[in-house]
Design a protein that fits this description.
Helix content: 25-40%
Shape: globular
Structural class: alpha/beta
Oligomer: single chain
Strand order of the largest sheet: 4-10-9-8-7-5-6
Bound molecules: pyridoxal-5'-phosphate
Strand content: 5-15%
Distance between the termini: 35 Å
Largest sheet: 7 strands, mixed
Number of helices: 14
């Protein structure tokens, strides 16, 4: 197998199709590709699907998991809560355990609930505790818009000016990626005014995977609470959320976690907050002690850990899709996935670089430790017609204005041949 070092992928990649065929043959995860449905191109062939960073493919097993809930609902109706194949009352709890393995957390630190932006708000209700002198929120300058809107609205909700209250961690002029010395400078000068740091673990645009532990330690040193949006990290990189020391995190399940469009999200709350009853929160009956929940008349008695942030009984049809996907993840394990991911993305990088610096620039860090599987490719002198031609040629990638294509070879279902043909088709379009 190709090996990775700390800095760069060892470049023993080769450019011909033979190399891709050989790597696919050696790939111990190759058979997992058959467990997914691929959209078809106009010739009826599997598309080259490179948008797991946006919406992951459907596992073939998902239908059975969802159907099992449908059948229980049809046959048992309300009794499905207690007597279903997987009783609905405890369905979420099993998922929290599997999900915890994927993000490097303890089961008590994870809950599957709500959707991502909603979770960020609920978590900020607990962890963003502004005072007159410490009320600012630090985010990346090119954070995902929903995160920016969310923190701006939190500032306004607490009576602060959203321009004054927002501190942006920017990439240096003419650079694409942020660096830690700038973050240190911001914290040294303004840290005493910053109440919360909220960063995307993997930046959605550049694909830069941040050092969560380093950011958390820096933030904590300056008295800030630190949270992460792990939408582009969960199922993609080793997040090690517990060891990072982060206070909270949330992520969706429809990207690398292949759980279907709009499927519900998950949250992490660090164990050190698990039994803290003084943390203010918005509450609902599902966060109440499950032993006494149905007595209905008791005062709120919060469940320990992340589960105590639940409000409502969860949508079990969505949980079923998540369960189908997590079972595949747990069977493979993040370690093997990440190993293949580094090799596959390194291969994509190798082939793209052969197109020449006059044609493309890869924005994503070239250090495999600072990225997941996504590469963001700046195509010089291109516009969206290039992306349209790419789609016409059966390659599904995604386009970000002004001229960036994001390609994410997902190690669970993408092959070395996918990567090879993707670059061949890009080359053909660029040569037109
Ligand atoms: C980094 C990031 N944050 C937040 C969101 C918003 O997610 P949701 O619509 O599930 O709240 C997305 C959606 O793609 C995202 O990529």
């Amino acid at each position: 197998m190709l090996e990775t070092q700390n800095k760069k992928t060892v470049s023993n990649y080769k450019s011909g199709l033979d190399f891709a065929l050989e790597q696919d043959q050696k790939d111990e995860l190759a058979s997992y590709r058959n467990q997914f449905h691929f959209p078809k191109d106009k010739n009826g062939r599997d598309c080259i699907y490179m948008t797991g960073n946006s919406l992951g493919l459907q596992p073939k097993s998902t239908k059975d998991y969802v159907n099992a809930v449908m059948e229980d609902w049809a046959n048992l109706a309300v009794e499905g809560h207690f007597n279903g194949k997987n009783p609905w009352l405890s369905y979420q709890e099993g998922l929290a355990e599997s999900m915890a393995k994927i993000v490097g957390a303890k089961p008590i630190e994870v809950v599957v609930m709500n959707t991502l932006t909603a979770n960020l708000h609920f978590l900020m209700a607990s962890f963003y505790k502004p005072t007159k002198t410490r009320f600012k929120i630090l985010i990346e300058a090119d954070a995902f818009p929903s995160d920016k809107y969310a923190v701006e609205s939190q500032l306004r909700h607490h009576g602060f000016d959203d321009k004054e209250g927002l501190v942006l961690w920017k990439a240096p002029k003419n650079k694409d990626l942020v660096n830690y010395s700038d973050l240190e400078t911001i914290l040294e000068t303004q840290g005493h005014e910053i109440a919360l740091i909220l960063i995307g673990a993997v930046n959605y645009y550049t694909g830069q995977f941040y050092d969560l532990k380093r950011i958390t330690e820096l933030g904590h040193k300056h008295g800030c609470i630190v949270g992460f949006d792990c939408a582009h990290g969960a199922g993609n990189v080793a997040l090690n959320l517990h060891d990072s020391g982060a206070d909270f995190a949330s992520w969706c399940t429809y990207k690398y976690l292949n759980s279907g469009p709009g499927s519900i999200a998950a949250c992490f709350v660090h164990e050190r907050h698990a039994y803290n009853k003084n943390l203010n929160r918005f509450t609902g009956w599902w966060g109440h002690n499950k032993e006494t929940r149905f007595r209905m008349r008791d005062d709120f008695d919060q469940l320990p850990g992340a589960a105590g942030w639940q409000l409502s009984n969860p949508p079990v049809l969505s949980l079923a899709a998540i369960k189908a996907s997590l079972e595949i993840f747990n069977e493979v394990g993040m370690e093997k996935l990440i190993k293949k991911s580094k090799n596959l993305t390194g291969y994509l990088e190798f082939l793209l670089k052969q197109l020449g610096e006059d044609t493309i620039k890869i924005i994503t860090p070239n250090n495999p430790q600072e990225r997941g599987c996504q590469l963001s490719i700046f195509i010089k002198n291109a516009d969206k017609t290039l992306h349209d031609k790419f789609t016409e040629a059966g390659v599904i990638s995604d386009w970000r204005e002004p001229n960036v294509i994001r390609c994410a070879p997902a190690p669970l279902y993408n092959s070395y041949q996918d990567v090879y043909y993707l670059v061949e088709r890009l080359k053909a379009i660029l040569n037109e």
